[in-house]
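[Amino acid chain]
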Amino acid sequence: MAGNDNEELFPEAFDKCEDGERELEQTGPKSDGEQICSICNNKLLGPRLLSCLHVFCLGCLEKIKRLVENGREMIVCPKCQQETYLGRKGVLGLSCDYISTNIQDMLAIISMAVVCTSCKTKEKAVSRCSDCAHFLCPNCDTAHQYMRCFENHKVVSFEVLKKAKEAVPIHKPVFCEFHITETMKFFCNTCSVTICNECVVVDHCAPDHHYERLSDAYERHKEHLQNLMGESKTKMAYCEDATNSLSNALAELQAQHDNAKGLINETFQSYKALLEKRKDDVLDELKELHSERELKIMEMFHVVEKSVERIEDASKFTQRLLEHGSPAEVLCLRQLVSTQLLNLINNTPKPDVNTTLEFVTDMDKFTAAIQATFGHFRKPESPVGTATTTPQQESPPPPSLSLVTNNVNCPPSSVTSSPVSMPSSYEGELALPPLLPLTSIQEYNLSALASLAEAPSQVSGAPSPTSSFSLSDLLCGDITSSTNAIKNLEALVKLGNVSLNEPGESGVSYPKIILPANPYKNPTTTRLFFDSFFGDLVNGAAGPAPLIGRGSPIDGIPPVLSPVNGASFPRSSPTAILSSANAATNSGMLPPVTYNVNRIGTKSAQAMQVRYKFGTLGPGKGQFNSPHGFCLGTEEDIIVADTNNHRIQVFEKCGSFKFQFGIPGKEEGQLWYPRKVAVMKASGKFVVCDRGNERSRMQIFTKNGHFIKKIAIRYIDIVAGLAVSSQGHIVAVDSVSPTVFVISDNGDLLSWFDCSDHMREPSDLAINGKEYFVCDFKGHCVVVFNENGSFLRRIGCENLTNFPNGIDISDAGDVLVGDSHGNRFHVAVFNRNGEAICEFECPYVKVSRCCGLKITSEGFIVTLAKNNHHVLVLNTLYIV
């Protein structure tokens, strides 16, 4: 029974009761009425209380209970996630919500839909006996008035009950758990439980037990509960203040981050200037040494040449003397000639020059000096804890079953319905070891490989003998060494002129890489595999297969992507990665067991040009501060959620600023860290998700930015994806507890479904017809559901759609999945069945944490670089 129907049937008394309960129940999703189970969305049937005081159907709780390690049963509340442990009776041992049961009976009385429960005639009841808790037909009502067995029974007609001033004028007797025919009449102060007459005689005898009548104990315990309720409400104010403090702390943290970042960049520029000056000084010193030693060598040249001339002249004179001179003449000149020749022989210059110009550097000392002097972060004196408690005594843990049940049986309601259960589950995240940073040598070599991957390849039959090299030659050595630098450059040239392991080309055949069968269940094994493979390769060792194979580009790629003219994206050659990925789609959430470690993009990704790039860090117009989301408007304007500037900015497709709206604040109509924005195509209204006073808030604005209304979405922790369906319904996905919610523009929760069994962390959302496409950031894929929440298929896999953070669907039905893994924006294109079509990558801009992906009518791809504070508009022209 819906809440509106209840109000019509029960105008005054029900309103009072409903208002009283609403004061206590301020958490969880908004329902149509307080008598509705939030699990099955039907009227409460056998309402049971959890330790968190949330109420659900008995049957629904039976379906969501789980077995824990020690053999006990446990229920995790779907609203607040608090755990409730069950006893030997299971769910039946939970306390009954008496108020809900009484309200349901009162609603039946108001609607005159209750029949007599005292006899078998099934006639409509006209009154109720307060002592035996039966509804009475006219005959039974007469019998209660005249028969002695019903003497002193209080019978109240329905008309009197309707006019009662009390919110709930009827109350069923509470029966003892151990003596099922006896009602609770006393309260044992020793055991803090309600007891019956038999319990007083058997188990709670005086003087060991002190007990009193329920009416006597009621006022004292009522006052105690009121005091606790008042104290808890003061904690709400404390939590609100704490929320404000945390929000201010977040803003202060961002300011500190920006200041530190600016100081780091300034320090780097200063040190860079010093390094450049030192480089210039060393080059000048090198020039001086070179000139000095060059001068010495030239002087030695001159000395040697003079010596050669003297020897030639002396030799000529001696030869002429020996040929034409008489013995007397020769002997007379012998002494002079001998002296000169001996002098020339003994004084022949020796070209002993120093040509060494060796530059000595110590990379280890330089690295240590940088680590010691560049700067560091001052550690706080007292580390900030993950959670703090208020300055009051801590509350006791949730009570055990014996204290929760209070030894009572719950009377069944006379109003019945069939509950429908919708259980939800949440799978925790896998904690992988942190990645180690790359060294400067590794970054240099990887950047060289990346730049090589962007250049068009040339098909060659077989490499020439001069092209013989290994990858270890390419990925080794000190980049400051001129010899190794030349070797690396030569290796890059050779790598660009050959083709490795391509079909139809000669060369070495490398084995296919076999990954661990289940990387999700054994992340350590998978991490060790990748560390051993990529680590050895990047650092210079010969890996089991080449990292990059070069070949001809994919045939059939058109100059411009045209997704809106009715044609699909052009298809490239089949890939082994997607064929194996599709084979594993229907078997579960695991990626394929065998596939190439190479992302297809290393071979076949086509380059995207930067058509427009706008936005810088700052608070001015056209500037951003960590924007988290964007969308395209009705005229394909780019609407950006400027998160840390607390506003929404609207731009034309070329990047020209149009207008902005939103002022910082938590009140309605204000914006507080807006994360996501969407547009209702029919009306042009903006849907903005920000934080406000709650964890999440949704607000509707006109197409001009004027506030319309607020939609409370307290049941969503963090909105990871936001879209508007063709019916005009708002669809949001929660990243904390992976769940998709469908909300009307009036704020009513139309439907929801839990998708945690099929994915780990949603990051974006797209809708195509009756299918929902949800990006799984940590699962490296896209999961597709129908509108009822049933799992359909999985698109993409690891190393093809690594950490996807954006998705859109073209008019032809092609699915575009974007990611910024490796600091380059990469787009993988699939058909609606999950088969790979082609890939695109933008090598011209280094990006960090791109958020979202949209495609325009011209085929331009739009994305938002959050950490770079700008918007990119890319086209898909393939540049040769």
